[in-house]
Amino acid sequence: MIEKALILSAGQGKRLLPLTERKAKCLLAFNGRTLLEWQIACLAEQGIREITVVTGFRAEAIDAMLHARTVDGVRVDTLFNPFFQVADNLGSCFIAREMMRSGGFVLLNGDTLFHPQVFARARAQARGPITLTVDRKDRYDDDDMKVQCDGGRLRAVGKHLSETATNGESIGMTFFSAEGGAMFAAAVEAALHDPEGLKLWYLSVIDRLAREHEVRIASIRGLEWCEVDYPKDLAAAGALTARLWHERTPRQDGAIPLEQTGRAM
Fold it and tell me: Which CATH number fits domain 4-243: 3.40.640.10, 3.40.50.1820, 3.90.700.10, 3.90.550.10?
């Protein structure tokens, strides 16, 4: 049972300028909550009790928000990534590598919004050391983090994959067992020994691991999620969070309904 999460929220989100000129992307608000609060609420409902947020741009504002808006039964800590301006998200993973060695966890991109059922279905399929959550659609564009799968196994992941080699996309949610977390932490350290490692996404390391180890996939096809990366994504994020705000999700063992998580949210 995975009860820990790591959220990568160090970036500014320059593609959303001017909205992110003085505000971190994860603090953009949708239907009464910031993007980060929506993530925490969905994780809390699914039984996650320890959350580590890697911050960078406007870290002090993120810390202040998290201090003011708590969720009962959930511990939220932050780690500051001082290299956020010069390294991609692999640098944030490096900052959190000791947390990765402390047991199983789920890794989230800080700009992924998802229905709690997405998390529940993906976690139910997390069988091996590393499980990448994927969706499928009819067409993929150049900016999609595309995946090549063989049955339930990941063969490759990256924006570079050709259309003929692609049969899914990563949604920015990856599950690690204790063994998988330790393996990933070691691979992150090895990648950053190379000066080119500063330019890598963490999924570049997953791609390398998939060549030598078993990396599984979890399909969430048909469920709701969205990435907040470009201005065109704002409407989809608003629509998804509006539905989450009004619906009542089933209470599971120890789960916290979305409408009851935290205060002043």
Answer: 3.90.550.10
